[in-house]
Amino acid sequence: MADPYLPALEDFELNADETAAVAKALEDDKPWDWKPEDQKELQALKSAKDKILAYHLSRHGGNCCYCRLNLNGAGPYMTDREHILPKGKPVYKPFSYSIWNLAAACKRCNMQLKRSGDAFVVDPDDSTKFQDSENYRFVHPNFDAYGKHLIRLQAQADAKNIVIFVKTPGSEKATYTHNFFALHELQVDSFDKAQGLEEENLETELAARVRALAREFDQ
Ligand SMILES: [Zn+2]
């Protein structure tokens, strides 16, 4: 049954040229990295990849699918089209362009932490399970509603930041995702230092509000 927290994947569409280019790419040994010589085909494949990224970014409110970093305006140096089942392993290659196997992630989560491993897949050999949420140890960008497992709370005022991750109690996926993507590294609270200097400044108030919000989620 469709999860009301997740936009449907079924509404994603490629046009005829893009579909044909993707089909040809999938015949190649490296489907995602295939470079057609035909300019029209090259354009169609680029257009398909652009559509995939735009679709997934909007699906996650413009945020990284793993750490919820806001990628609004971040551009290609910070944003990756992420293959959830890595594209390098032969068993996963047929899913190089499958919309359910793609997402938008920040460079840190994709390149630095997730890389090309698949330890997060429960059964990496049975392709009939690849579209099941239960076959993934982390919060799957397309089969799980992130907010049901993890909430990223944050506020920034000038040079002061507060970032807190709240895990849903009892969610194994929250714990696994939190560890796998080292989300503790992203937690920060530089508002604390302002306390004691000025009693009622806006920044302290903001930090207090985010902490209160965190407590509210952390029930
Ligand atoms: Zn990220």
TrEMBL record:
Keyword annotations from UniProtKB, A to Z: Plasmid
CDD domains per UniProt: HNHc (cd00085)
Protein name: HNH nuclease domain-containing protein
Species of the source: Rhizobium freirei PRF 81
